[in-house]
Amino acid sequence: MKADRNRQKLALQGGLKAVGAMEGKGKPKIGAEEFLSVAARFGLSKKSLSQIRKIVAKEEWGVGPYFANYYSDLKETMVQAYEREARKLFGTKFAIGVSSGTGALHCAFVAAGVGPGKEVICSAIGFFATAAAVVISKGVPVFCDVDESLHMDPAKIEALITDRTVAIAVTHVMGGVANMPAIMAIARKHKLMVIEDCAQSCAASIKGRYAGTYGDIGCFSISAYKIVGGGEGGLIIMNDQRLWDRAQGMAEGGGLWRPDRFGPPRYEGELFCGTNYRMSELEAAVDVVQIRKSTAVVKRFNAVKQRVCGRLKTYREITPQKSNDVNGEVGYMLRFFPETIELGERIVTALRAEGVNCGMRGKNAPPDWHVYHDMMPLKSKAGATTPDCSFYCRQYTERGGKVRFDRGTCPVADDLFDRVITVGLNQWMSARDCQNMALGINKVLSAYCAEDQKGAAWC
User: Fold this and answer.
1) pLDDT, tens digit, for every residue of 155-180?
2) Which tens digits make up the pLDDT trace of 370-424?
3) How many CB atoms lie within 10 A of CB 63?
4) Within 13 Å of residue 75, how many CA atoms lie on the same side as its CB?
5) Which of 86, 196, 344, 399 sits at 20 to 30 Å (Cα–Cα) from 77?
6) Angle, nearest 10°, between helix axes 32-41 and 46-57?
7) Which of 382, 115, 104 is nearest to 237 (CA)?
8) Cis omega (within 30 of 0) on the bond before 387?
9) CA distance to 7, 17, 21, 23, per residue, from 11 (Å)
10) What is the CATH topology of the domain spanning 78-290+370-406?
11) Is 0.70 topped by the overall pTM?
């Protein structure tokens, strides 16, 4: 009877709790099967997976792991470790792990103040994502022609600067590096922000300084498509606190990261509606390892390219791609320009017959989103909804804004992109592999071109 009274009595008044320890026993939300699914994605054999299954079956999983960067009982999450390794590698104050290189660019442009009525000068050669991120930030990309490095030509930047220009977006193209000292001098003269797109050249350097650390913000695609990365991931680096605040705000819902997320703005422009570009713990677990390997990867690629180039002869009809830093570029591709496309087509056919992996776009090449005039979503000037506020908003048109993306706007890029011959290199090539490749290239070029000791050097 007394026990019944205690059950009826409120716990606040000394009675028994109605709900005690839970009797039901469940399984963790994420556990052995998910672990095995990841192991299977690594391509392990059925025999190995069976052995792993026996091991993990004995493991006490508890509630299971939590694969998000927040609300974790870990002292340091994988995303935080990834950001720490990035700060250590690049020597910057801030690093933000994000879900993709495109997400990194979008955050960077918003942080830099790109918006309606604003223009960003972009390289005529480089993946579409850079210009697309300008547009989704409500700005307008203006393309700058390239030189024989296939990178933005510093000599052609100033002619594109108007009172609408707020930033220069430099793309380090396909393992190469841009002439950052010259570009930075122009940017600082005109008080423009500089965003570096290092997606294709992670851990490359210019004059001993990492690509991505010259400009105000460095953006990276740390992904399966690049030399560093495992799946879909990105990275933003910078040294300025307020740029970090704004980039983080864009990536983190506008302010979820703030010490007091419900507090008033600490300064004008701090709070705005952001989106979600958060990196997952699973991606970070791979990429924290990948970023540690990046300098060694670059060193191997660079050594291979220099071994091959050091054995190549020079020719009257061949111009090697100009390098803005022979020792600092990644160099995962060897490029050169034949005098004509017709000559190039013959060279490519002969090189392939020799076992050299190479290619050239030529005259009738299909569209490619790495050159400005083929970026079809951009050429249409159409937004996701109408009316669009990039190309047609009053802030732009009433200030004289007008931009073209037709072939012919950047004639050097038009010519070189179609005419360049690209030879793929592998970081694991031995000295003999390099020797054989150089032998094959010399063999073909000597058959179709005239050797010239005064010809342009390869490296």
Assistant:
1) 999 999 999 999 999 999 999 999 99
2) 999 999 999 888 888 877 789 988 899 888 888 999 999 999 999 999 999 999 9
3) 11
4) 0
5) 196
6) 160
7) 104
8) yes
9) 8, 5, 15, 20
10) Aspartate Aminotransferase; domain 2 (3.40.640)
11) yes
